[in-house]
Amino acid sequence: MIKKIDHIGIAVANIDAAIPKYQSLTGEAASSKETVAEQKVDTVFFPVGEVRLELLEGNAPESAISKFVAKRGPGIHHICFEVEDLDACKQLFVASGLEFIEGVPERGAGGSKVAFIHPGSSGGVLIELVEHQ
């Protein structure tokens, strides 16, 4: 059900300051900045081969990214796998004992549908599943 690694999410304190660093690192331009209201984040993507790097900055104090940066500092936040059918995948993973953070999939960047597997049930790694529309 997993098609590929879609992206690696990197939490940053200031997305505008981080963009030039990652442009230099990847040799690629960032995508347009997008605000994902449901997640309370601003985000940009950098292509790196078939995988993308996603920079995330919380845009509200209660954002999971804002809390992450305040507690741990900037750094790798999650790994994201692209799936064909998020609802079916979620049912299969729940049946296998994985726990999801949210009850129902939410809207992600680019109008995608996303769900997060709780790191407590996945060996300490926050895993995002994404179904592109």
Mean pLDDT: 96
- Helicity range of the residues? 10-25%
The CATH homologous superfamily is named: 2,3-Dihydroxybiphenyl 1,2-Dioxygenase, domain 1
SSE pattern: EHEEEHEHEEE
The helix/strand class is alpha+beta
Describe the structure.
The chain is an alpha+beta fold and 133 residues long. The protein has one domain (2-131): 2,3-Dihydroxybiphenyl 1,2-Dioxygenase, domain 1 (Roll). It is 23% helix and 38% strand. The protein has helices spanning 15-26, 64-72, 86-95; strands spanning 2-11, 34-36, 41-48, 51-58, 75-83, 106-107, 113-117, 127-131. An 8-stranded mixed beta sheet has the order 2-3-4-1-5-8-7-6. The model has no long low-confidence stretch (mean pLDDT 96).
Quick gist of this model?
With 133 residues, the protein is α+β, with helices and mostly antiparallel strands.
Question: Which properties best describe this structure?
Answer:
single chain, 133 residues, alpha+beta, 2,3-Dihydroxybiphenyl 1,2-Dioxygenase, domain 1, 8 strands, 23% helix, 38% strand, globular
Question: What is the topological layout?
Answer:
Elements: E1 2-11, H1 15-26, E2 34-36, E3 41-48, E4 51-58, H2 64-72, E5 75-83, H3 86-95, E6 106-107, E7 113-117, E8 127-131
Parallel strand pairs: 1-4, 5-8
Antiparallel strand pairs: 1-5, 2-3, 3-4, 6-7, 7-8
